[in-house]
Specification:
Elements: H1 7-22, E1 26-27, H2 36-47, H3 53-75, E2 78-84, H4 90-101, E3 105-112, H5 115-128, E4 133-134, E5 137-138, H6 141-151, E6 156-161, H7 171-183, E7 190-196, H8 201-207, H9 214-229, E8 239-246, E9 251-258, E10 262-266, E11 271-275, E12 280-287, H10 291-300, E13 303-310, E14 316-323
Parallel strand pairs: 1-12, 2-3, 2-6, 3-4, 3-5, 6-7
Antiparallel strand pairs: 7-14, 8-9, 9-12, 10-11, 13-14
Bound molecules: N,N-dimethyl-L-histidine.
Length: 324
């Protein structure tokens, strides 16, 4: 999660922006939300009273660390705990703390595309947990998992994909993602994912439409990033954040709406884009699951559910899957 730096990264960013703004409806990929400022705003989102997801996952880890460890241990005596996109690792730290107190035999392997984020996390974890063995891996999730499959085949892997990150994929994309994961894992390896569940639609909508405007700032920050990195001239005040939740498909979606008819120039693309008044740019999906949808997802992607852990309100689940 850093500012786009290399030429190829900048080119892919520009190409993705071009194809998104040429589509109908226009769209921008939420994977570009997380430059330094976007990551900072996301930290703010996680502290919002309306954004329940982070607190639910922390509650599960705080209250059920022993049961989670039992479920891991029951399957495997020693393991590699591989975390995809660990962020600041604060929730994982709750489990690591418990595992170390139980003298668990494991190695922590965080994987991230950002070398800087990994360096900070490793330094922090090494200071917090002097006995923890950390082997950080910089790069693409799948490529790193493939190499681990070859180099440490004898070690059982427990892959963590927390924070409801799977919600930011469409349902077809999430099947493809987990299928790729399962082919990079060995039989009997485990996957531990954080999933936001369907609930009172008003609770979900509020989480993406906070009255303090932090989520709005988060979305608009992508336009600022495009201005800065791709030499564009989005007038930020001419766009407004709009969030929706549809209980029929369980999808929360966010948009930036053009308040007026306008043209935006993107220097790096040598191209201009026209916006009609009230035209939306589709920014992000946050898919909410039922337990039935989760079971279907596991089955279609080569896993079976071993156990679901829930918070006290049953808003959220951490679901343990086994590769079959
Ligand atoms: C990172 N991801 C799981 C967040 C979510 O809930 O979809 C991103 C987010 N977007 C707006 N608020 C939070």
């Amino acid at each position: 999660m850093t500012t786009t730096s290399t030429k190829t990264e900048l080119q892919s960013f520009a190409e993705d922006v071009r194809s998104g703004l040429e589509s109908s409806p226009k769209s921008l990929s939420s994977k570009y939300f997380y430059d330094d400022e976007g990551s900072r705003i996301f930290q703010e989102i996680m502290k919002l009273p309306e954004y329940y997801l982070t607190r639910c996952e922390s509650e599960i880890f705080q209250r059920q660390a022993a049961e989670i460890y039992d479920a891991f241990k029951h399957e495997n005596a020693s393991f590699d705990l591989i975390e995809l996109g660990p962020g600041d690792g604060s929730k994982t730290a709750l489990l690591i703390d418990h595992f170390l107190k139980q003298s668990a035999d494991f190695t922590y392997v965080p994987i991230d595309i950002s070398a800087e984020a990994l360096r900070l996390l490793s330094e922090h974890f090494q200071a917090k947990f002097p006995d923890l063995i950390i082997k950080e891996k910089n790069g693409d999730y799948f490529r790193v998992l493939e190499t681990l499959k070859e180099t440490s085949a004898e070690r059982t892997k427990i892959v963590f994909f927390l924070g409801s990150n799977i919600g930011n994929f469409r349902r077809d994309e999430s099947i493809e993602f987990f299928q790729r994961l399962s082919s990079a894992m060995s039989k009997d390896d485990l996957l531990f994912i954080g999933v936001d569940l369907q609930k009172d639609p008003r609770v979900i909508l509020r989480a993406y439409d906070d009255p303090s405007g932090v989520t709005s700032e988060f979305n608009l920050n992508l336009l600022k990033r495009i201005n800065r990195e791709l030499d564009a001239n989005f007038a930020i005040e001419n766009f407004m954040h709009y969030a929706s939740y549809h209980p029929t498909d369980g999808a929360a979606r966010s948009y930036l709406i053009s308040r007026e008819r306008q043209t935006v120039k993107i220097g790096a693309l040598g191209q201009s884009f026209d916006f009609a008044q009230w035209e939306p740019i589709y920014m992000e999906i946050s898919q909410k699951y039922t337990l039935g949808m989760l079971e279907e997802l596991a089955e279609k992607s080569g896993f079976r559910i071993v156990k679901n852990f829930f918070d006290s309100k049953k808003y959220y689940t951490n679901s343990l899957w086994k590769a079959v």
